[in-house]
Specification:
OB fold (Dihydrolipoamide Acetyltransferase, E2P), about 575 residues, BirA Bifunctional Protein, domain 2, about 25% strand, homodimer, Gyrase A, domain 2, 22 strands, alpha+beta
């Protein structure tokens, strides 16, 4: 037997017992004739004690143990003289009477500590060692709990866990597929799913009623920071539902997850329309942890001879409570920040509200105290606040202001990682126009239904048609999205027409779904959550790589196993690959 | 709102309530001025009633509803005059006051009944309709419960659910990999995992201690009946364990699954060594639902001048209790059966035990009553039994007898699908010799450890070395298998040497695992269960296709979505594919 207890289990009540533990040598401390070793496993750390006086040979052997050696020790649980109240086993130690080295270890290329000295590249190469560190291990444990909390909720709500296939058919629409050559069917390929979208809709046609799956999805995108070619979705679909049935169900799920995993009651989850979210926050995934909402200054800022405003689509402000503390230099830095190409603003206007209630703006030439008082009134600014103003094309300026709002939110400490605020964004546009291809593109996907009241405009004014689609955002990040689907083949055909699919293209790519709709498809809708992103938010990390056991780097490469890699000649020949 | 209740929910206690139901038209029956419709959803069937006298127009509209139309009905729950005690809703019906057709349906290409008239090909093409049938839908529901039962047990036992990557590196050893060309790294490929074997071992190196995952695996095999290119594994690994720790844990899991899913106490799970299983049953996955064990007749059958026996490696018998009932013609059919090329026996000897205790054998010329009495004693045969005897090369004849035993077991009704008997088979050979390549092959995989006592024979007599490996069989089918792994790099190198890997090949294919073993790998072992097979056994079906929502056919083709399929020219160009 390798152990009677784990390294996190022993307490004062075990004193006097003879035990066997196995684990890794975390640290060794030699004091005169005494040797202390912290033995580590997933469950905790237990201190081992060796005494030269009692057993010289054993103590000498203990001193040969290096970091990360795997040992099995046998001994008595005794009271610790130097108690450590920072760890649960801190009241005891093991007086070791015998031990065995189960495996030696080379010196690891970086320290196995909470704050390691290893850079990301070397930690990815030796991921199995990085995974020994508490901060990473805890994230994987939390992810496992998250997974369980989701399943518990959905199982209780009568959802059926159904696995859909991974070897499917490529659909050239949307992001690029990863493909898999078929050896048995030369010149033919499977594709890996970007999502089980069509299959879950088919499951609704088949009457499964409520489906879920936690499933890997694949997207062959050009690499960018914090994207993984494979990612995990909580994928769900329900029949005979309307929008609010879906929102209620999954609001319940997210609440249940926060309760189970973080023991936290998630506050209200407000529903914002897309238009409202864009107007108030400049984002379709607003960070609701703080206010500082966008204020439209058009009617008080325009028409004062200041061309920058007068010629702008919108003049938009935010009020930074207590923001008058920022120095002129800091304000200049804000200006530089919004002028960076990633943000793309042409400049930033500010207006300080002084302690005495007077105003000092960067456009005093055009706006007197009375005018500025109107700005302040509009944006609910008080003494010592700071009003920041951007102007330009409406959609652009709102997005720029969203970025600035988040930036200042960070500076002001309004976005703590242990605070969580969720919201729904609903009534997205159905389609968006792409100038390059001169085509309308589905904002979600081609199976998303338009809001019934807007259907008549699909052919005449598609840009104004709202979709019966919804996203959930937490802390400014999209964590889930879905829609009520089109279940009627006539409407589906109108949608394909709108998106510029010829009937042949539609038939070739989605024929099996359209055929299925001929045989009694029920009204249905669903949602998919990004498990990686959700786990990242719950663990307070910015990178989804931290919540994936074996992530790829930003170039889509697994540098631990060195994949992708060339095939050998036999494999290539069999597959007919070049 | 589409429904207030499901179609399986209403009972006598709901009588008088006004309800809304949605579902599919299962059947319509027109009687004079009355129309009855069975409305179906996943949860059950509810009878709808229409009455011409009360609402002529509604009744007329109801008569236009065809099979599989989707309708939403509104009405009052009333007591049913003709009660149906076969269904839970049989005491009530809905007096419909209004309804709406949510979707029409073409006439399905086969009947949506428990016993459908559709052949397998058409049912696979219209899988979404086949999935509407109860027998298939129930299997998916059970599979979902199985999934949950497994997770509940493993979560309770402190296993962590960790996802391992799907885009990994090809290892030419073993079965063929499916590969995925990397667009961003021309000429390089990912491979889809045949199992997460190396990753779960790395998770043990990383100290995760107990890991599980329910995960898709992929094998590009030449197609044969009831193989799927993608299949699902319950994949598990534990650290600091010995064999019986693993067996106890997963015996508990299987018991828990049978209890949760079938409300059934699984009996004892005996442990047989591989040698014992082969001797007693001629199989390493014996069907333990019945006896009829193999009996070695060597010492009573050889040396009697019957050359067939005398020159055979082994003479093996089974006793068929009450088998004297079989006619001569039936016995001839058994002979033909074992002589088929799939079995490959040269002939079959029988010995009837007559009611009066006398014997009648097909080899009376060589064996008198006294000799045959010895056969009967050896094989514990009584009056009216039948002894069947095969002879030949020991290993072959045992396997042939296993087939015959199962065949007769079927005929005798000893293998009912609602009876379950599991066993462990342990101490498999470590390697088997392949004449063609003149190489030793790992019977499980190259990371399986030899039994400590046998290690010295690895170089001198590898064929006799037993592996610390184990399989679980239920009802004669292998459902799981695993081993205690090699955690020591010296032993791992000896194993690679034995398997004929050059150090370079070993380093190239498994270098990252061997490197990991340099940094303190703990003793570890694990197991993987085939979820598809387990679900098939639990649902009493012979084909795993029945428990997969969207299976491929025997040619690895999804005939519903028509995959695999050619890529379009752009895709091929981007990927550099021919």
């Amino acid at each position: 037997m390798h152990r009677t207890h784990t390294c996190g289990e022993l307490r004062a009540e075990h004193i006097g017992q003879t035990v066997t533990l196995s684990g890794w040598v975390q640290t060794r401390r030699d004091f005169g004739g005494m040797t202390f070793i912290d033995l580590r496993d997933r469950y905790g750390i237990t201190q081992l004690g060796f005494n030269e006086e009692q057993d010289k040979e054993l103590n000498t052997r203990a001193r040969s143990l290096g970091r990360e050696f795997v040992v099995k020790v046998h001994g008595e649980v005794i009271e610790r003289s130097n108690k450590n109240d920072k760890i649960p086993t801190g009241n005891i130690e093991i007086k070791v009477t015998a031990f065995k080295v189960l495996n030696a270890s080379l010196t690891p290329p970086f320290t196995i500590e909470n704050d390691t000295d290893g850079g990301e590249e070397i930690r990815l190469k030796y991921r199995y060692l990085d995974l020994r560190r508490n901060p990473i291990q805890e994230k994987l444990v939390l992810r496992s709990k998250l997974n369980k909390a989701v399943r518990d909720y959905l199982n209780d709500a009568d959802f059926i866990d159904v696995e859909t296939p991974y070897l499917i058919k490529s659909t050239p629409e949307g992001a690029r597929d990863f493909v898999v050559p078929s050896r048995m069917n030369e010149g033919q390929y499977y594709a890996l799913p970007q999502s089980p979208q069509t299959f879950k809709q088919l499951l609704m046609v088949s009457g499964l009623d409520k489906y879920y799956q936690i499933v890997k999805c694949f997207r062959d995108e050009d690499f960018r920071a914090d994207r993984q070619p494979e990612f995990t979705q909580i994928d769900c679909e329900m029949s005979f539902v309307e929008r609010d049935d879906v929102l209620d169900t999954f609001e319940g799920m997210i609440r249940s997850v926060f309760k189970s995993v973080k023991d936290l009651e998630l506050g209200d989850i407000p529903k914002l329309t897309y238009d409202e979210a864009m107007r108030r926050f400049g984002s379709d995934k607003p960070d609701m942890r703080f206010g500082m909402e966008l204020v439209d200054l058009d009617d008080v800022a325009k028409g004062n001879g200041f061309g920058v405003f007068d010629n702008a689509g919108s003049v938009v402000a935010i009020n930074v409570t207590g923001g008058n503390k920022y120095t002129r230099k800091e304000l200049d830095a804000f200006t530089d920040w919004v002028k960076r190409p990633q943000i793309g603003a042409l400049g930033l206007i500010y207006c300080r509200v002084n302690e005495d209630g007077s105003y000092k703006s960067s456009v005093d030439k055009f706006f007197d105290q009375e005018k500025l008082a109107q700005w302040a009134e509009k944006s609910d600014s008080k003494a010592n606040d700071l009003i920041l103003v951007l102007s330009g094309e409406t959609e652009k300026v709102r997005k720029q202001m969203n970025e600035l709002r988040l930036h200042i939110g960070d500076l002001e400490g309004l976005r703590p990682k242990d605070k969580f605020a969720a919201c729904w964004v609903v009534d997205f546009p159905l389609v968006e126009y792409d100038e390059e291809s001169d085509k309308w593109h589905a904002m979600h996907h081609p199976f998303t239904s338009p809001i019934p009241a807007d259907r008549d405009k699909m052919e005449t004014d598609p840009g104004t048609v709202k979709a019966n689609a919804y996203d959930m955002a937490i802390n400014g990040m999209e964590v889930g999205g879905g829609s009520i689907r089109i279940h009627d083949k006539t409407l589906q055909k109108r949608m394909f027409d709108l998106l510029g699919f010829t009937p042949e293209e539609a038939q070739e790519q989605f024929g099996f779904l359209m055929n299925a709709f001929e045989y009694g498809a029920p009204p249905h809708g669903g949602i998919a959550f990004g498990l990686d992103r959700l786990a990242a938010i719950l663990t307070g990390t910015d990178s989804i790589r931290d919540v994936i056991a074996f992530p790829k780097n930003n170039m889509g490469r697994d540098i631990m196993i060195d994949a992708p890699a060339p095939l050998n000649a036999d494999q290539k020949k069999e597959l007919g690959m070049p």
